[in-house]
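Readers of this paper often ask what the protein records in our data store actually look like. The remainder of this section carries one protein's record, kept here as part of the documentation.

:::
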Amino acid sequence: MTDMYCVIGKKLAHTLSPEIHRAYFELSGRQGEYTAVELTEEEIARGREFLLGYDGVNVTIPYKQAVMPLLDGISDEAREIGAVNTIKREGGKLFGYNTDPYGFEAMLASRGIDPSGKSAYVLGYGGAARSVIYALNRLGADVTVVSRDPARAAADGHAAIDYEELAQREGYLLVNCTPMGMFPNADASPVGDDVVARFDAAADLIYNPVLTRFLRSAISLGKRAVGGLYMLVAQAMKSQHIWTGDDGAEALTKTVYDRIARGFLRDTGNIWLIGMPGCGKTTFGSWTAQKTEREFVDADAYVQHLSGMTIAEMFERGEDFFRDEESEAIACLACRKGLVIATGGGAVLRDFNIDCMRLSGTTVFIDRAPADIIADVDYASRPLLVQGAERVWRLYGERKDRYAAAAQITIENDTDEREVFDRILSALGEK
């Protein structure tokens, strides 16, 4: 018998939840159906029988509080947050949970953002903010709420300030829990660059667009940045764990995220090609750009354009100097749309660069065997390969795991170039 699940809310035309859970069913091999059901306030008020018709239900705005009186039990964290986003049916009874704190924690961890023992400022004090505050307190952060009405948060026992006072503060993490920047108002941001500049990392719960104005600001300023799409997927996998008892559901988060992100960013997102020098990034990048009618950018050439120096000249000042210039160029490219970008071989060495790529598009790893690279590489034109074949093997060993972790798609360059190109197009959904 197929298990039945759904998400309920008021307006669900653009929800990604069915796509996320269907990806889980396919990847896990479990049988299940997941649908989106729009309900009115009146239907929610008398909706217990409806809820009992499903094995599990996700709840989104504006009903996360409204469903609570219909339930037979509520988890401690859902009760403290004051909202339920996951309902499980057990033996004719309904039990409520909130997976948003887990999703938020997973989102931060995915990009190495650790607020433990550090200051975190939460923008907004709606339902989403309460889940974030709960998670940050659990992680051991020093949390301050930023609100136009700080007295309301203060009355609930939170340290709270207004936006005017925020302009004088600095800290580790800035979290946007407001709707500012959400589609179709993608150019809006809750704070300006001057505020973002005083923090080390930025997180945005908004996932449409994936790269918000708030996150673009963080990236342009060289900050760690992460968007809400990963949180959305992570909390969904936690729901599956609650419903099915599948201990492997949470481990599928990155795989499901990569699949969802590819589709979500297909039309406007960049296509980033990563891999070793000599793996074919420039060739496949230019072909992909022609096929998809996008602009092609060679990141190394772009670095030289911005710096006014050759790569060899930059390396004369040290590799760190070149990497700084490279990160600045990647940040600039991440804030543009619809590009195909062939990156330098060492672009994945900095987590910041990976953040830029993953937030602004789809990353493709062109994996070519070192022996094949050695056979036709021009060492003289590649500063890091002047030591010859031994250097190629060593760099490949050092970087392969970084390439694989950064990529949403991995393509082996192990045959005719045209066949490899066909694989790339197919993986991108462009054939």
About this structure: Residues 24 and 163 are 40 Å apart (CA to CA). The chain is about 45% helix and 20% strand. Residues 102-226 form a domain with the Rossmann fold fold (CATH 3.40.50.720).
